[in-house]
Amino acid sequence: MPKFMFRCAKVAARTRPGRTVRFRAAAVAAVVLSLLLTACGGGASGNGDGKPVVLTTFTVLADIARNVAGDKLTVESITKAGAEIHGYEPTPGDIRKASKADLILDNGLNLEAWFGQFVEGLDVPHAVVSEGVEVMSISEDSYQGKPNPHAWMSPVNVQTYVDNMVRAFSDLDPDNAAAFAANGEAYKAELQAVQDQMTASLAGVPENQRALVTCEGAFSYLARDAGLKEVYIWAVNAEQQATPQQITRAIEYVKANQVPAVFCESTVSDAPMQQVVEATGARFGGTLYVDSLSEADGPVPTYLDLIRHDAEVITKALTAGAGS
Ligand SMILES: [Zn+2]
Q1: Across residues 140-159, what is the average pLDDT?
Q2: Which domains, from first to last, does the chain contain?
Q3: Distance 152 CA to ligand 1 centre (A)
Q4: Can you give the pLDDT at residue 291?
Q5: Ligand 1 centroid to 42 CA: how many Å?
Q6: CA 56–ligand 1 middle distance (angstroms)
């Protein structure tokens, strides 16, 4: 398959330093084995359709990537729907899958604590999709000053993710660059529409109830876009979360500001937030989605659904308490 081999060579040659990082295997034998296994265009899914395989670290990125890839690439996520993604522990199967991928996409901004170790020794190109977004810092806890990784919670930021994907996919598969560019533009228009819908919906929350109290501090970007004050129990999902001090701090805020409703995310236990509910009389406003999509038959099978769902749940819960 001469054309196939030629494309393999092009992929390697077009990898740009700075934008795409190539991890080199320590052992030559491992590289050779990996190349033999992948034959460059081989599939992580083993579906044998010959399309290059793009592997993302979580389901939200996979959905965004599918919108850009169209039918030209096979896109899969390492973590499954509903998974906790910050402290995920990759399995040997995940590593095997990654070794056969043609491109790996990660969010960056310290989201995937496991990622560096995961790709160590893999000879697969890798692109960081958050590159170029306006990063917000975490203001509290031991993460103070570090970037808040949840940049995708602003659809406007995701337009930058899309640009990065269009570039990375065009490097991977130059013959389809025009299709990726067109898909990217179409999806960016949808992102803008959802962004406008979200901010319009949340603009309806009364002035004195514009506080978004959640479990993880994952909503900084959404709160910024919508003009809400963000309050959370813990900064980033980790082993040390929901300490008594963190819960007390949230309780005090909710009481002092008569916050009508509080929320928690789908990938963590809402038990700490239920303690806030019991101590304050605030309502539990609902489950929000941020770090993972739901299964296809759940409430947020796509990223656009995720933003629409969260905007609706927040608006409803905070507006229902108005005047009571
Ligand atoms: Zn998170």
Answers
A1: 93
A2: 2-195 (3.40.50.1980), 204-320 (3.40.50.1980)
A3: 11
A4: 97
A5: 32
A6: 16
